[in-house]
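Incident log, support desk, overnight shift.

02:14 A customer reports that sequence design results differ from what the structure should imply. Their input is reproduced verbatim below. On-call engineer (initials T.W.) acknowledged and began investigating.
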């Protein structure tokens, strides 16, 4: 069975997760890991099982055995490494976002197209078995024509101010996953977007022109309406729920709890909290997204989540911020002259 030989750029938390998943995969072979500092890998499972551990990206990109790169470095380096990898004739998997600047992302996608390589963006929730079943149910027309799409996405605890300072804002950092999920479930582009957002958890976020709580409404080209509610702090756990309501029924996915046990007594009914950490909640999805990436490269099949999907989600994050700043509904057509849509 053919495997895809890959290298990882960036060995922080998510890079190490991907490395460990790849080392257990039958579809991928991990040839190299690169990071600006590799001291934290000494003596690790990764160091013991990966042939090349390096601080030199060129060593990875010049290796003819490596067919694809997995980019898990800081967001401000994504676009540079994507372009370098494309020019080196490597296929690319990159964590979201491609960049924090939509014009910069346009340039990245131009380089991808010119070099004829594939780019998958790390919207791992598309590969979650629950959300995928919701999407498949919508596609099968079991619930008829979608009319309402509801997404609740709430983190268990807020990020640090240091993190907020460099994250690019909640819409680009957190809600971007929900924008992608909305497009995935609706199978339609967004026509307009309106945001009501504030700081009720940590007012200091406003120092960085950021928010921690939001309600976002959208209209889709197919006529459906969408709503996303975001919070940076859900004290009961990592709250991830979706629902699609159609003219013939409704389909929804609830949270994953620690167990599905429910205890009912005369006094109360109780059950476990939702899983608390995103790496725990989406553990299987992280594995699946890389296995499907490998299959798409090996068999030359279409990617489930493309560079254009990353671009469209970034446009929605940009429009959401603009809606909040200008206190009005933003029509996506307003952005088309700035950020034209092309096939990618």
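02:41 Re-run completed on a clean worker. Output:
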């Amino acid at each position: 069975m053919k495997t895809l030989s890959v290298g990882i750029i960036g060995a922080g938390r998510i890079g190490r997760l991907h490395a460990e998943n790849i080392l257990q995969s039958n579809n991928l072979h991990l040839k190299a890991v690169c990071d600006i500092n590799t001291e934290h890998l000494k003596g690790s499972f990764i160091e013991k099982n990966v042939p090349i551990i390096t601080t030199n990206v060129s060593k990875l990109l010049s290796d003819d055995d490596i067919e694809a790169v997995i980019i898990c470095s800081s967001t401000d380096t994504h676009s540079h490494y994507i372009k370098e990898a494309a020019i080196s004739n490597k296929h690319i998997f990159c964590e979201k976002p491609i960049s924090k600047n939509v014009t910069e992302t346009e340039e990245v996608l131009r380089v991808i197209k010119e070099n004829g390589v594939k780019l998958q963006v790390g919207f791992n929730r598309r590969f979650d078995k629950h959300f995928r079943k919701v999407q498949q149910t919508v596609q099968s027309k079991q619930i008829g024509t979608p009319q309402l799409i509801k997404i609740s996405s709430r983190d268990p605890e807020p990020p640090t101010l240091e993190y907020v300072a460099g994250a690019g804002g909640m819409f680009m950092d957190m809600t971007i996953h929900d924008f992608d999920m909305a497009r995935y479930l609706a199978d339609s582009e967004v026509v307009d977007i309106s945001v009501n957002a504030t700081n009720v958890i940590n007012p200091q976020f406003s120092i960085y022109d950021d928010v921690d709580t939001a309600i976002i409404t959208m209209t889709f080209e197919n006529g459906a309406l969408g709503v996303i509610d975001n919070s940076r702090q859900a004290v009961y756990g990592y709250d991830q729920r979706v629902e699609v309501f159609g003219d013939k029924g409704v389909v929804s996915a609830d949270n994953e709890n620690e167990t599905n046990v429910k205890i009912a007594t005369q006094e109360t009914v109780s059950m476990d909290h939702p899983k608390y950490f995103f790496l725990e909640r989406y553990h299987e999805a992280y594995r699946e997204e890389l296995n499907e990436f490998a299959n798409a490269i090996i068999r030359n099949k279409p990617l489930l989540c493309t560079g254009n999907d990353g671009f469209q989600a970034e446009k929605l994050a940009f429009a959401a911020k603009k809606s909040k700043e200008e206190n009005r509904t933003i029509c996506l057509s307003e952005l088309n002259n700035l950020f034209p849509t092309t096939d990618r």
